[in-house]
Structures are given as C-alpha cells and as structure tokens.
Design brief:
Number of helices: 7
Distance between the termini: 46 Å
Structural class: alpha+beta
Strand order of the largest sheet: 4-3-2-1-8-9-5
Strand content: 15-25%
Shape: elongated
Order of helices and strands: HHHEEEHHEHEEEEEH
Helix content: 25-40%
Radius of gyration: 23 Å
Number of strands: 9
C-alpha cells in the first residue's frame, strides 16, 4: 500500500512539476499522498494564484519560532457537559477558534465532525466577554420567613444566577446537534476542492506576491476582526493546525469559516 501510494505521489508530482518553474510546495505532495486528485496549476486557483508560497512557508516557520507555544493550534476541546460526543470512528473532525481581541469581544469555539455514516454534527459556543452580565435577582423580601416557599424560590434564583456567572455553559449556552445541511455541503465541497492542495496551513494577513502589484511586493487581504485558528483531522493526513489572518478565497478558509459560524438544523 505504501509503495503504491509512493508511486502515485511521485507520478502526480512529476506531472505537476512539468508545468511549473519550480517544484511544488510540500502540501501538494501531502494532498496527493492522501488520495487527493491531481490539482490544477497554482495560477488556476484564485486563493493562491499570485501568492509566493515559499515566502508564506518562511513566514510560518518564523511565526512558530517566535511563538510562546509553537504547538498551539485552534484545538477546541469538547467540554464534559457537551450533549454530543465525537465518535471514535469519526471520519473528519474540524475545530475552530476565533479568539477575542482588538475590537472583537466574542470568543467563538466550534467543533464539527463527520461520523462514519456520513452525518455531520456540531458543538458551538460564542462567549461575548464584552456584554455586561444581567443584574442579579433581588434578595428575598425581609418580611418573608426563611421557611416560606417564596423565600426558598428567591434564594434558588440567586444561587442559579451565581452558578450562571461562573459556568460558561450556563452563561453562554452552546449550540449543538446535526449540522445545517447547506453548511455540511459547503464543507464537503471545500474538502474535495483540488485547489486545496496548494493551500498553506497558515494564510497571512499580508500576502507576499509572486509579482509586484502597483509597485508592491505584498498586499493586504480583508480583516474580519479576529485571527481564524483551526485544527483538522482528516483521512490520510496527520492532525494539524490551520489558520488564516483574514478573509481569503482558499478552500481552507471556506472550511474554517463554515465551522466557526456553523449552526445546527432547526428542531422539528
């Protein structure tokens, strides 16, 4: 099996190199080795057509070297309170985190997974640290007896308020259930898009270009208030972190953003 895969990879890369001025980046080989179809030329993929992928890789290495935690990714752990659990035989697991920062006060955490039967599920929580907590309920009326139902009800309400402020799952109830069908289709299409073969795991805010544009050797892509950090496990490839500093046209960004803003199918 490894020999067959190696030959398939070698053939795919040789065909790709034949149409390129330089060897393709490592992610293309990883895509083909995992069974992905032969990707089109880099110039045919809008998200990376003008991107200098060699410089992006250098920026990624520098980012990791300067990080306080080089192994940090957008890994989101399902809390013990989550209603649904990721099955052991899940085919794909994608986790996304849009941390708060700058003008962005929400901390978005999401996990979606595809089970062996093809169904997609999700768990998603948005913690809005900028929103002030509601005022606490009033104390029991001083004329109430401690043994009275009204007194006990008032005290239980205040106790629930305190628990809510200290328990993120109570203060910001997560959304969970079967993934919205159109979102599942978006993720499936992006996962299968052969242009994803070119996608770097890290997509920078300032994009280094293959050719100068308007006198510049880089361009800025549209920001969206937060860095998109994610973590993906898929067939044929080791679990890895992926991320983007801004909105872009790559299939990888489509996957991350679809997961970050995922919603469950409405209850019937």
């Amino acid at each position: 099996m490894n020999l067959v895969m190696t030959r398939a990879t070698a053939v795919g890369l040789s065909l790709l190199v034949a149409g390129c001025a330089s060897p393709p980046p490592p992610q293309v080989g990883a895509w083909i080795a995992a069974g992905g179809i032969q990707p089109p030329p880099q110039g045919a993929c809008p998200g990376v057509a003008h991107l200098d992928l060699t410089k992006v890789a250098e920026q990624r290495a520098e980012r990791v070297a300067q990080s306080a935690d080089p192994t940090a990714t957008g890994f989101v752990e399902l809390p013990a309170s989550a209603e649904a659990r990721i099955p052991a035989d899940a085919v794909v697991v994608i986790r996304a985190n849009l941390p708060s920062g700058g003008m962005y006060s929400s901390d978005v955490r999401a996990v979606v997974w595809k089970a062996a039967d093809g169904t997609w599920s999700l768990w998603r929580q948005s913690r809005d640290y900028g929103a002030p907590p509601p005022p606490p309920p009033p104390p029991p009326h001083p004329d109430l007896s401690e043994d009275s139902p009204a007194y006990r009800a008032a005290m239980e309400e205040r106790a629930l308020f305190e628990r809510t402020q200290n328990d993120p799952d109570l203060r910001w109830p997560p959304r969970t259930g079967r993934l919205l069908d159109r979102t599942a289709r978006t993720i499936e299409a992006a996962l299968a898009d052969p242009c994803r073969a070119w996608d770097p795991d890290y997509f920078p805010y300032a994009q280094p270009l293959l050719r100068r544009e308007e006198g510049r050797d880089s361009r800025l892509c549209p920001p969206d208030g937060s860095y998109y950090a994610a973590d993906i496990t898929e067939p044929g490839r080791a679990r890895r972190g992926i991320g983007a500093g801004c909105i872009n046209d790559t299939p990888t960004f489509q996957i991350i953003s679809a997961v970050a803003y995922a919603e469950p199918e409405p209850e019937r």
